[in-house]
């Protein structure tokens, strides 16, 4: 299947974005040979900075297979930004859909047309204190199992040193290095042609995230935690800690009244 032309809007975005990226960050890019030359596929990428979508798009632009990112559908209606999103072929996600698979119908269609769809499986910037990938949503696995397309795990590191997650102040000096490693396709064949249950999707997603984390370990030269950070579990634990530290107001009041009556 022929690859889609890069097109005017993507080239315009490259003209605007590449010069500041070239100035701000150095590049250590590996694994481009694992990006398929033809046909539809998914890249599954870790997310640790608001800058990394631009830096990663630069990496993949240089392979000749531009990524189509998933983005909130509302962004496609906003003036120049909306025109650029539509023109560069980004993919709207309609979060109001009640059918999880229908919400990714456009991504499935793009893959079947021979496009590359770039997923951030975590769904947001990682909240892991040390920047490791956290537990992920199942969207990438859904599209992969529906289309049986290659899933390329991609790890990146360095933009988080330029602009740490959940901050607005960049650290410009010393100049940071954007490190990217794209690996060979994740083998998901054992999940094909099976009922797409929540458990199956969770297991397939964990396989994808394990591949990304393994590549990030190679980039960083460190070992990731054995258990990925889980924001939902952390919220539950935080709620329990808060409740255990909160005095039982009504019980104390009743106790005071009982003491007054017995005096």
From TrEMBL:
Residues annotated as domain Phospholipid/glycerol acyltransferase: 41-159
UniProt biased composition (Basic and acidic residues): 219-240
GO MF term (any one): 1-acylglycerol-3-phosphate O-acyltransferase activity
Region (Disordered): 219-263
Record-linked SUPFAM superfamilies: Glycerol-3-phosphate (1)-acyltransferase (SSF69593)
UniProt keyword terms in alphabetical order: Acyltransferase, Transferase
Keyword Transmembrane helix annotated: no
Statement: the UniProt record of this protein carries the keyword Acyltransferase: yes
Biological-process GO terms, alphabetical: phosphatidic acid biosynthetic process
Annotated PANTHER family: 1-ACYL-SN-GLYCEROL-3-PHOSPHATE ACYLTRANSFERASE, POSSIBLE ACYLTRANSFERASE
Name this protein carries in UniProt: Acyltransferase
Species this protein is from: Streptomyces parvulus
């Amino acid at each position: 299947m022929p690859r889609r032309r890069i097109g005017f809007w993507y080239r315009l975005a490259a003209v605007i974005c590449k010069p500041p990226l070239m100035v701000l960050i150095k590049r250590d890019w590996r694994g481009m040979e694992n990006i398929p030359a033809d046909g539809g596929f998914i890249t599954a990428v870790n997310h640790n900075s608001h800058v990394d979508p631009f830096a990663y798009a630069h990496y993949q632009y240089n392979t000749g297979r531009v990524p189509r990112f998933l983005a909130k559908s509302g962004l496609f209606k906003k003036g120049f930004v909306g025109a650029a999103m539509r023109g560069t072929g980004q993919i709207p996600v309609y979060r109001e859909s009640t059918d999880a698979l229908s919400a990714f119908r456009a991504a499935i269609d793009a893959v079947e047309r021979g496009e590359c769809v770039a997923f951030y499986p975590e769904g947001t910037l990682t909240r892991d204190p040390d920047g490791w990938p956290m537990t992920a949503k199942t969207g990438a696995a859904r599209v992969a199992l529906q289309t049986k397309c290659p899933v390329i795990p991609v790890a990146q590191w360095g933009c988080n040193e330029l602009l740490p997650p959940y901050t607005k102040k960049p650290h410009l000096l010393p100049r940071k290095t954007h490190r990217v490693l794209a690996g060979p396709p994740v083998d998901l064949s054992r999940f094909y042609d099976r009922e797409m249950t929540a458990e199956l999707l969770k297991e397939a997603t964990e396989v994808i995230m394990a591949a990304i984390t393994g590549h990030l370990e190679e980039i960083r030269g460190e070992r990731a935690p054995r258990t990925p950070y889980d924001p939902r579990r952390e919220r539950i634990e935080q709620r329990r800690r808060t409740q255990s530290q909160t005095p039982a107001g009504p019980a104390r009041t009743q106790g005071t009244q009982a003491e007054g009556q017995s005096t």
